Amino acid sequence: MMDSTHQLYLTLLADHIWGRKTVVQPDLVDWVRLQYIIRIQSMSGIAYVQLRDALSGMPEHALFLSDLRNRFAAEVFYAVCRKEDFSALEAVLTAHQIAFLPVKGSVLSQYYPVWQLRTMGDVDFLIHTEDRARVDELMRDLGYTFFSDTEAVWSYDRDVNHYEIHDHIFYEPMANDFDYQGYFDGAWEYARSLPGVTRFEVDESFHFLYLIAHTAKHILHKGSGFRPFVDMALMVQKVGERMRWDWITSELERLRLLKFAETCSALCERWFGIGFPIQTGKLSEEFFECVTQKAF
Question: What is this structure's pTM?
Answer without folding.
Answer: 0.95
